[in-house]
Amino acid sequence: MTIATSTPITDTVAAARAVFDTGSTHPLPRRVAHLHALRNLLADHEAEFEAALWSDLHKNATEAQVTELEVIRAEIAHTLRHLRRWAKPRRAPIPLALMPARARLRPEPLGVVLIIAPWNYPVQLLLAPLVGALAAGNTAVLKPSELAPATAAVIARRIPEYFPDGAVRVVEGAVAETTELLRERFDHIVFTGSGTVGRVVMRAAAAHLTPVTLELGGKSPVWFDDDAHLDAAARRLVWAKFVNAGQTCVAPDYLMTTPERIPALVNALRTAIAEMWGSDPRAEDHYGRIVNERQFDRLTGYLDGVDVAIGGRRDRAERYLAPTVVVLPAGTPPVVGPDAAHPVLREEIFGPILPILPVASAAEAVRLVKTWDKPLALYVFTASAQTRELFERETSSGAVVHNAGVVHVAASGLPFGGVGASGMGAYHGGYSWQTFSHLKPVLNKPLALDTLRMIAPPYAPREIGLVRWLMRRG
To answer: Residue 220 burial (CB < 10 Å; 0-12/13-18/19+)?
Structure first.
């Protein structure tokens, strides 16, 4: 006879559920206290997080602040400003056919939330969803990425200090531990990463009918035709593409423009790269590194057989790959996705390589975007209102950003999420609170005036006719 024994992961999830079941995380003051605790954690250990991000990704202190810590602080501040209003029960309309009655929506937390973070923004993409989970009154289990080990160690060490009530718990480990976590029952799962692993997460969640928020990335395209603002557009493109050495899920993945614009655009991109990172980005402490050798080898393989217009320098020992721009030959017609002629157009690049793809027109670019999976973001650099409207109307993506890249992720008032193969669900600000809350309908129909008798047997044609008339009027 085999006697089942619990594992540390099972015990961790059970402990998080036990805390939730006490109801201690539900009151608004406790939610506020948890948000303050998270803010204090970031403030008290700023230098520790900065050192960890440098160790894992060669991310300098300023970049760590702007792209990681300050994003979470802004999310906390936004949530604290609005949480009391979000958490109030709100009146809901009642159709005439059910009057007299009153209804309201009573927000309640879901339960235990699992947050599985990637390695590329290992603080932001772990703790930003946590803000919403705590604001809604849930407990949470965090799974930091094992591919950012220094950051994961800081999280695992500091979270228990700031959440001594056990509302937030951390599970470290790699694939085996994540697999074991996914066997447990959660009330919501947030996963950021590849579509391949996202499918694994979704299958595991289905066993418990657990809702999921999946942020899966993909090939985020760019259209450019704004000749009057070429230099400014190039600077914004270069920053969006090469920050964190291109390892950003919403980074511009490939750039479409007409063939005659390519020489001037390449020159502008070259100038912008030099302005930001100098003639040798390897010598600058604010240019990142590729996370590991496996990713380095994958990325450098993309450079075989292509026209490298800018960059291309590499050092495997240092995991350094320079900001690189490649110009692809025009296809007839051009293709993106698994049938593309070159692998740089077949899959998400997730590194510091920007392909320029010649296309005949904005209309051709729209056609190309629509032939493959819906991207997580789409970027349009144009002075034409008609072209902006064309991309907004004719394409589907997680977000559209005009004249910039990546920055929409820092807007707490906007939902961050994908559509189709780039993900499902959204969070940030009020959308996080909604994601991790259940708006429970509560209806009260007095007994004193029993209008429900009108729809109970024996049926009276005149009364039923009145009820039907009222139902059609909402």
So the answer is: buried
